[in-house]
Please model this.
Amino acid sequence: MNEVRILASLNDKHIISYKEAFYSEEEQSLCIVMEYAGGGDIREKIKSQKRQGKHLSEPTIWKYLRQLVKGLNTLHTNGILHRDIKCANIFLKED
Model:
């Protein structure tokens, strides 16, 4: 529930937004509904590029890094430490 409260309190274009949360009796778990990330995640993007024999361009890498740091800055400004930064947790919008 703490994660839900934290997500609900954040409003930044560099952080996937929280929509709602509910408890599933059937699954016996808390479900968190987030903004749709139509571009997938960076891990899948890298894997896709690798399958095609390509690499992400340096300008694209810098663009992603700038946006990641802006999102982290928002978290840190709000006293939140992200403890699981990895490519699979960095989501991309379609644009």
In short: The CA atoms of residues 9 and 18 lie 9 Å apart.
